[in-house]
Amino acid sequence: MAAEIILSTVVEEVIGELGKFSVKQIASLWGVDDDLQQLEGTISTIKSVLADAEKQQVQNQQIKTWLERLEDAVYEVDDLVDEISAEALQHQVMTGNIMAKQVRIFCSTSNQFAFRYKMGQKIRFLRRNLDKIAADKKFHLDTGLPLDTQVVTVEREEHSFEREEDVLGRDYEKREIIKRLFDMNIEENLAVIPIVGVGGLGKTTLARLVYNDAEVRKHFEPVMWVNVPKVFDAHLVVKEIMKPEVRDEKTMDELQQDLRLKIRGKQFLLILDDVWDIDSREKWLKLEELLKDGANRSRIIVTTRDKKIAHVINGREERTYNLGILNDEMAWCLFTKLAFVHGQEPNDPNLVGIGKDIVKKCGGIPLVIRTIASNKMQDA
After folding, report:
1. How far is residue 90's CA from residue 206's CA, in Å, rounded to a whole number?
2. Which one of 178, 221, 273, 323 is separated from 61 by 20 to 30 angstroms, measured CA to CA?
């Protein structure tokens, strides 16, 4: 039942975001407003049967499979909405007064069309995929007939490595997080280090950089990564931790036992990425109880936008790492790395001045800088 509660929450959020004026405005500029409207309608239709699917999946593996397909697709749409929202913010930054003229100096028309075409194709792909899932819903849930169609799963993107340009300007932050991981003065069995910051600052990128660090991997074993469901549930976190190692269907008791064996006597590191909702400390303590077999000085890193969550899971302000914006110098370096071929960065003082004014409007947020840089011509 928890999975359906989570899915319902994400669906509600996606529908709400798709209904925003700024998102609809960008869709209109891209010429995909009809597709986005159909996507919203399809999601709304699917939402109406989630309760029925939850009831049937207990005794129907095929319905459970349908829900898993749906969950993957909905998370893809959720990621898409984040991209559109970033583009909407860019549009607000770049429209009006002198900025519009300045942007035209930097922007390549062909690149803009290519970007809009790419996003339009992505929206249409997701809409078609959801339409297929919705069609299965009408057939299988309403009539109870068995599945006879091929299961198509849209996987959420995983980043096993980070490119230099994606983590530019975060070396200091990486060192600070690792310093806290290795701090011998923190003696308790399981210490939590929250990374807190608004969307687009690069919390996940920073956590992944720590996750891939060679010294971290020598110090901790195992090192585990979980993309946390929107509504926090300890059992689902356990399921995600064990997913790469479990091929057959197992009960939750069996998964918990496997997890205990996996970490028993070991100094592990667990990274919980993008925690949205923990409404009580009891939920968190339930997860800690399942992880108690690890060795002393095991660590958990949690990335979240919400300072309240950091307090619920940690309660110690000095261990919370508040991720800030990039300074002007690092923001400009990130922009030039992404927008221009190496060796073709602008040298003209007037052009550089215009570019820096544009980047300054991004507020030091890496996601917005990357979105804007993706539209710039390399030989401006």
Report:
1. 23
2. 273
What are the b/e assignments for 303-335, b being 16+ CB within 10 Å?
bbbeeebbebbbeeeeebbebebbeeebbbbbb
What is the pTM (predicted TM-score) of this model?
A: 0.59
* CA–CA distance, 108 with 105 (Å, rounded to integer): 8
Say how far apart CA 36 and CA 124 lie, in whole Å.
Answer: 8
Q: Give every CB contact of residue 126 below 8 A, 6+ residues apart in sequence.
A: 39, 73, 76, 77, 80, 154
Alpha carbon distance 217, 239 (integer Å): 22
Please answer whether residues 219 and 182 qualify as being in contact, where contact means their C-beta atoms are separated by less than 8 angstroms: yes
How far apart CA 70 and CA 64 sit, in angstroms, is 10
The H or E element that residue 93 is part of is: helix 61-94
Residues 215 and 203: beta-carbon distance below 8 Å: no
How far apart CA 199 and CA 78 sit, in angstroms, is: 13
Please answer whether residues 332 and 169 qualify as being in contact, where contact means their C-beta atoms are separated by less than 8 angstroms.
Answer: no
Q: What burial letters (b/e) apply to 114-142, b meaning 16+ CB within 10 Å? A: ebbeebbeebeebbebbbbbbebbeebbe
Asked if 210 and 178 touch (Cβ cutoff 8 Å), the reply is: yes
Per DSSP (E only), the strands in 51-207 are: 190-196
**pLDDT tens sequence across 172-200:** 899 999 999 998 887 778 999 999 998 88
Could you report the per-residue pLDDT of 37-91, keeping only the tens digit for each? 888 888 877 777 776 676 676 667 777 777 778 888 888 888 888 777 777 666 6
Secondary structure (DSSP) of 202-233: -HHHHHHHHHT-HHHHHH-SSEEEEE--SS--
